[in-house]
Design a protein that fits this description.
Layout (H helix, E strand, L loop, with lengths): L10 E6 L12 E9 L4 E3 L1 E14 L2 E14 L6 E2 L5 E3 L4 E9 L10 E2 L3 E13 L2 E9 L11 H4 L2 E11 L2 E12 L3 E2 L4 E10 L6 E14 L2 E13 L7 E11 L13 E12 L6 E9 L7 H13 L14 E2 L7 E5 L4 E4 L26
Parallel strand pairs: 14-20
Antiparallel strand pairs: 1-2, 2-8, 3-7, 4-5, 4-10, 6-7, 9-10, 10-11, 12-13, 13-15, 15-18, 16-17, 16-19, 18-21, 19-20, 22-23
Subcellular location: Cytoplasm
Subunit structure: Homodimer; disulfide-linked. Interacts with TXN/thioredoxin through its redox-active site. Interacts with transcriptional repressors ZBTB16, ZBTB32 and HDAC1. Interacts with DDIT4.
Protein name: Thioredoxin-interacting protein
Length: 379
């Protein structure tokens, strides 16, 4: 029998049973076949199929890996292929052969979702190795995605998140008032395409014009031998109206839509992917005043059931609020002048000369426990 000079199949590839499937999860079965076809007869010794999944981080000649999946199986060739006098399997020319494989993914809690970042990745693949007599083995592989379900309807993710911060300012070492931010969201868990409704209050008693903003930020953390490298990225943002000196502004349900992003990465030992809602004030000539509220981006969308319960219990337990200010413009007075005057621009921002004066006290209202709003350390 005349053998191919290269003894190499024309077709050698891995094919999944359902090529349209976009991802697998814990407990799912991954199945498919290894396809072989030769243009001239080839001799083979064995066919081995392996599957692997691991997280890998690389940084400055150092690397670290953590394994999450390992599968090996030797595919039997004898039921399909004949052997020659030397005991090698013969792959005839012009005919396609499919050798099946299949395995089950580990149960929940043992897998990590697929991910690809700047310094590391979580990758899953099926590899076929075809061994031939007196020649190097041939290899081919096919990647597959793993996405572990993350339900944003969990009780801990339906709980609201709130924080507040303030900052005293100086101008040429002279006290220049302060600014403050308080913000709250109804829940911590969201999915792609959902709107985050932001309730916030911004106060400005300094002499500068400040601008309130909010943004969704992603944080990627890569660890190699105990040393972490952290990358932050602003994904999408919203901007409010400028706040003059002595004024304040309130956001009531200001929405910010979650963009198309990878879900929060849980359970990986060396790669972490998490998100936060950053609410902040841009202050000319000074560092921003920033607070962050934790976000978890999931895969199972909000059902709408837990939110009503959470909102009702929140209203029942919260102290009574101030009287209605619905007839007052949203730029509210905050211990400052009625009409701030533009004073100077020195390359650091706009500054205001604040004339002396006072105004009647606002209507009385019951006290609100400010301790209910916890301040949060900014990353």
């Amino acid at each position: 029998m005349v053998l191919s000079s290269a003894n190499k199949p024309r077709e050698f590839r891995v094919v999944f049973s359902d090529p349209t499937r976009t991802f697998y999860s814990s407990g799912d079965k991954v199945s498919g076949s290894v396809r072989l076809e030769a243009s001239a007869p080839c001799r083979l010794t064995r066919l081995r199929v392996t599957a692997a999944g691991c997280a890998r981080v690389e940084s400055r000649r150092r690397s670290q890996e953590v394994e999450y999946l390992k599968y090996e199986d030797e595919v039997r060739l004898d039921p399909v292929l004949n052997t020659d006098s030397d005991g090698y399997f013969l792959l005839p020319a012009g005919k396609s052969f499919c050798f099946q494989f299949g395995f089950e993914l580990p149960p929940p809690g043992r897998l990590v979702s697929s991910f690809k970042g700047k310094f590391g990745s979580v990758r899953y693949y099926v590899r076929a190795e075809l061994q031939r007599p007196s020649q190097h083995a041939l290899q081919c592989e096919r990647e597959f995605e793993v996405e572990e379900p993350l339900d944003v309807n969990r009780p801990d993710l339906l709980a609201p998140a709130a924080a507040s911060r303030q900052k005293k300012l100086t101008c040429l070492f002279i006290p220049d008032g302060q600014v403050s931010v308080s913000a709250q969201i109804d829940r911590k868990g969201f999915c792609e395409g959902e709107d985050i409704n932001i309730n916030a209050k911004f106060e400005n008693t300094c002499s500068r014009i400040v601008v309130p903003k909010a943004a969704i930020v992603a944080r990627h953390s890569y660890s190699v031998n105990g040393t972490a490298k952290i990358l932050r990225q602003k994904l999408t943002a919203v901007r409010g109206n400028a706040i003059m000196s002595g004024m304040c502004d309130m956001w009531q349900g200001r929405s910010l839509r979650v963009p198309k992003v990878k879900p929060t990465l849980l359970g990986c030992d060396i790669i972490k992917v998490d998100y936060a809602l950053m609410v902040y004030l841009h202050i000319p000539g000074s560092e921003k005043l920033v607070l962050e509220l934790p976000l978890v981006i999931g895969t199972i969308p909000f059902s709408g059931v837990g939110s009503r319960t959470s909102s009702m219990s929140s209203r029942d337990s919260a102290p009574s609020g101030p009287p209605s200010y619905s007839n007052i413009h949203q730029d509210l007075r905050a211990d400052g002048p009625r009409m701030p005057l533009l004073y100077d621009y020195d390359g650091m921002g706009l500054f205001i000369r604040v004339p002396e004066g006072c105004y009647p006290a606002p209507p009385a209202y019951s006290e609100v426990d400010e301790d209910a709003i916890h301040s949060q350390q900014v990353f």
